[in-house]
Amino acid sequence: MVQLAGKPISYWIDSTPTNNFPTLVRETFEGVSVDVAIVGAGIAGITAAYQLKQAGKTVAVLEADQISVGTSGHTTAKVTSLHQLIYADLIKQIGEAKARLYAESNQAAVEWVASLVENEQIDCDFSRQSTFTFAESEATLSEVKDEVEAAVTLGLPASFVTETTLPFPIVGAVKFDNQAQFHSRKYLLHLAKTIDGDGSYVFEKTRVQQVEEGDPCQVITDQGVVSAKDVLVTTNAPILDQGLFFAKTYAKRSYIIGARISPDRAPQGMFIGTGQNYRSIRTTPFNGDLLLLIGGEGHKVGSTSDTEEKYQKLEDYARSRFGVETIDYRWSTQDLVSFDRLPFIGKLTPFNQHVYVATGFSLWGMSNGTLSGLLLADTILGQENRWAELYDATRATPFVKPQSLKENIDVGVHWIGDRLKGLRHQSFDDVAVGDGKLVTIKGKQIAAYRDETGTLHAVSATCTHLGCIVNWNSAEKSWDCPCHGGRFDCDGKVLHGPPIKDLEPYS
Ligand SMILES: Cc1cc2nc3c(=O)[nH]c(=O)nc-3n(C[C@H](O)[C@H](O)[C@H](O)COP(=O)(O)OP(=O)(O)OC[C@H]3O[C@@H](n4cnc5c(N)ncnc54)[C@H](O)[C@@H]3O)c2cc1C
Ligand code: FES
């Protein structure tokens, strides 16, 4: 078994309090009725709830776990409209006018966050930073140059540079001025505290199981029912299947390490590379020093078991490129990548009148999630929003694009193939201490993990979403579904949607 360096928890979560809000308890809160129920307390849900509360609506935020411990608590938290390389491609795919709306809405989200932090004096390590997408070789230099040209055309604060404060040479970079970074969880906890009270609620440890549209809508949780005129589903991966978002996106998991670095050796700004094996780099204040965050090694969820290797590669990079001495943190998380690169924000389906969704932020949800919250709030408040059409969640989606075709064919291959081939192991004896294996016993497909004490944890290997077979994730000790990114802990408890039901225990 590999011993990985660093505390296995997100720095954002480790440095903030847990258990900030109550659970919805049937007896105490029976009959909760609000204007808007918001399912999921990440950046999209909390931003929407904040805006709606400010506008005089009553809201109930229902969070399965705790505020901002999902993707928003595991992000790198760069708040920027520079999304690696996107604008040249968007102009080509959807035209300049629509690409301009994407640019404008993301830049507006950056400025909205900045103003809010200033006006509310939010203590969240916010700072203005330049942000860079860099090329280390000629192979991606032309893409970088095209991106600068596209971004300038769209009115973004872009320029081309050949030097940065990174401790290694680059051949060129897109630079955006006056972008920002923050501590995502401090920011979201502050907003959540302003939401609770005066007829509005924030509930933690309250998992929503179903939403029934009606007048009012019924939001059914594992603790009781909440009535609401409108419902926003902001669960990252939508828990309701009607919009088929699982077929319009794929779930990408990526890794981050945090290493202490002294300010005089740290790079200034926020960085992301280009090409297949790019790295994402920034720093954040850390006990009088800085914590250098390095992210990368992304892959489709459930497509590999050896995830320990991912952390090791990031560690090697941190040590060789930045000379860091310790690795203090490591964590990983995932986001849905939209096939047309645009988030889905708005009505769940053309037939819904009161149920809305926001998803598909493609690893840029600090700005995309913020603008989702603003857009959904405008929609509920009946205010016109010029970005609504671009992000319309019911828009015709490119099922026939090569990438979406490939991903959806992959799902079919997993669904059928995993059943036909059977699982390789026939005995729990094959499951070593610290390891997870798929085992077939009397025709049952079982996901089995043996913990450090030798105790076996055995659950059904069939994902409760649409029935694919889960795959072992060695670093996180979880069962990950290769079809739509659902994840379960080693006892089968749901960690990440779209599934809402736990894996069945094996008996
Ligand atoms: C490695 C990585 C690095 C990233 N770095 C950046 C970055 O630097 N800048 C940037 O802009 N973006 C970044 N992103 C993307 C960004 O972090 C995400 O897009 C964003 O956090 C998603 O927010 P969300 O509100 O959709 O989801 P989440 O934050 O996951 O919130 C959804 C919430 O819904 C809850 N939930 C789920 N199911 C239920 C249920 N049934 N009932 C109740 N609640 C439920 C979950 O517990 C969760 O808290 C990164 C993504 C990754 C993967
Ligand atoms: S997440 Fe869809 S089948 Fe597992």
From TrEMBL:
One of its GO terms (cellular component) is membrane. Keywords: 2Fe-2S, Disulfide bond, Iron, Iron-sulfur, Metal-binding. Pfam families: DAO (PF01266), Rieske (PF00355). Gene3D superfamilies: D-Amino Acid Oxidase, subunit A, domain 2, FAD/NAD(P)-binding domain, Rieske [2Fe-2S] iron-sulphur domain. Residues 423-507 form the Rieske domain. Transmembrane segments: none annotated. The keyword tRNA processing does not apply. GO terms for molecular function: 2 iron, 2 sulfur cluster binding; metal ion binding; monooxygenase activity; oxidoreductase activity, acting on paired donors, with incorporation or reduction of molecular oxygen. This is FAD-dependent oxidoreductase.
